[in-house]
Design the sequence.
């Protein structure tokens, strides 16, 4: 400390008289020399975070919890993002509302009944309570696995399976905050352009994939603008990507008020029949 170069008092007086704000800065740095070090090394910079997110592909999934095609997509397709490591190149956003409707007094009616409304709200609470993607996706994946296995009444077992505390989710639901979250998701879903016609409604960088949603990874790889192509994408050849995207029609849960042409109804019926077969 003795080797620090000292500035003469007259110079300081002149400097501070013209720039009073510098006095406070000088006092802080003089008495707390570690402040500068803390601000530069212990806290992440905003610009660094923004740089890391640059090039990520936005992936939005609009779904409802008891639509069998939604649970199938989450359990058998969406989880591949995590298994392959491609999630590092994706900004995944889950919106559990789907084909529900808002009635009088802002009451929500769900396509598959009250149990779906309950699980939609529970999963909305999970996203809010556990903002870390790995945490809330693990919970949602567990719940949707039970839906896929027709055991959704056992959804509360996911807390013990994952070692999670149920209290914040219960508080979110019973306080009414979960319903507020669902109303926010309703507004987001109902203002989609183009409007959603069914669920799962998968959107990559603002573009809906319609009934080709099962091939979402190929769309992510094509949309990725990062410096280094993820391994999961480099493993896919262009021919494979183009082949996968050829007139594929995955099954969906249509909105009850959706206007469908006669040919569309036939196509949907045939697709469902083939899926069951």
Sequence:
């Amino acid at each position: 400390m003795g080797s620090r170069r000292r500035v003469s008092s007259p110079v300081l007086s002149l400097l501070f008289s013209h720039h009073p704000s510098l006095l406070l800065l000088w006092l802080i740095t003089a008495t707390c020399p570690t402040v500068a070090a803390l601000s530069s090394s212990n806290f992440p910079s905003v610009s660094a975070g923004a740089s890391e997110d640059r090039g990520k592909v936005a992936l939005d999934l609009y779904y409802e919890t008891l639509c069998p095609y939604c649970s199938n997509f989450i359990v058998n397709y969406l989880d591949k993002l995590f298994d392959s490591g491609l999630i590092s190149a994706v900004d995944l956003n889950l919106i559990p509302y789907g084909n529900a409707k808002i009635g009088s007094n802002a009451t929500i009616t769900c396509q598959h009944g009250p149990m779906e409304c309950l699980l939609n709200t529970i999963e909305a609470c999970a996203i809010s309570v556990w903002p870390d993607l790995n945490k809330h996706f693990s919970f949602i994946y567990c719940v949707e696995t039970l839906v896929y296995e027709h055991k959704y009444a056992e959804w509360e077992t996911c807390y013990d399976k994952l070692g999670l505390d149920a209290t914040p989710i219960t508080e979110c639901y019973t306080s009414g905050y979960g319903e507020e979250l669902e109303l926010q998701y309703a507004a987001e879903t109902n203002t989609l352009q183009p409007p959603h016609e069914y669920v799962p409604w998968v959107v990559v960088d603002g573009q809906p994939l319609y009934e080709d949603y099962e091939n979402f990874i190929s769309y992510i790889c094509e949309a990725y603008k990062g410096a280094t192509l993820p391994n999961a994408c480099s493993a896919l050849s262009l021919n494979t990507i183009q082949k996968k995207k050829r007139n594929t029609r995955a099954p969906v849960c249509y909105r009850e008020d959706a206007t469908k042409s006669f040919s569309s109804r036939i196509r949907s019926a045939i697709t469902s029949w083939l899926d069951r077969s």
